[in-house]
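tool_call: predict_structure(chain=1)
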Amino acid sequence: MNPRRILVLKPSSLGDIVHTLPAVAALRSKFPAAHITWMVNPEWAPLLENNPQINETLIFPRADFRGPAGWLRFHRWRKNLKTQTPPDLILDFQGLLRTALVARTFRGVPVYGLSDAREGARLAQTQTVTVDAKSHAVERYLALAAAVGAALPGPPTFDLPAGDRPAERLPEGPFVVLHPFSRGEGKSLSPEAVAAFCRTMDCPVVIVGRTDEALGDLPANATDLLNKTSLTELLWLLRHAAFVVSVDSGPMHLAAAATDRLLAIHTWSDPCRVGPYRPAAHVWKARNFFPALDPASSNAPSVEPTPNDAETMARWVRDKLA
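tool_result:
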């Protein structure tokens, strides 16, 4: 196999985009002369700018396909794809109906996909790669790349842009980034826990993320940047933080790709499946601290952190910084 044009289907979400980066790096290593196109939602496209592993991005405007006329607009967009130079190989890392329909646009092109694909996406695959649904996403995606002969020569690499310094005023000196809120049910810190964490830290804390939650009064060392940073500004903050503390979320995976200095907070999710894929990072679960990817963390029970737990996390981070 020596494809000249490869189409990577992975339009979303933030964490999944990050998890796919090592597999695409493996494709570039195996096929250095290939033209690699990555289909991605517009909100995540900034993460792929100037990525040395890909040649171009194909924007998938998912928001345009919502509503009663969404299928018609999708059909027109898909029809326009047929006018472009077709790929020689398609890898569907998403494994959902929308990516399957995109793959079927190019008749006769080999489509490699994963065995845990949903919504009938396996019907569009010409080759199904068997993966363990309990393994980490990074490992499943690397297995898909390996099925076409692409394997990384070393540890996984995450090529991300440097990011942009936020326009908002930042603290002087070293700061800790706290990302306390997640869209996933039962994953977020309470506003009281956020305040307790900040009070216990003896250095500035920058609070990031997006939420409708009201924080209330915060101590003087806290800088509230909730709903105030772009994706690339968030990446800059994660890269420049003395330490990052984040609930299980897309920004946590972004942090894991950028730094070892990370504590991921897990309530009910399995850290070995959806935690930071960086052995030097750490995980909090059930009031215990684990190295990332430690199998013992998978068996820890579900516990939602209290303000007292947040204070313990802050003291743990202080010890690491010391």
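agent: Residues 241 and 270 are 26 Å apart (CA to CA). Proceeding to next step.
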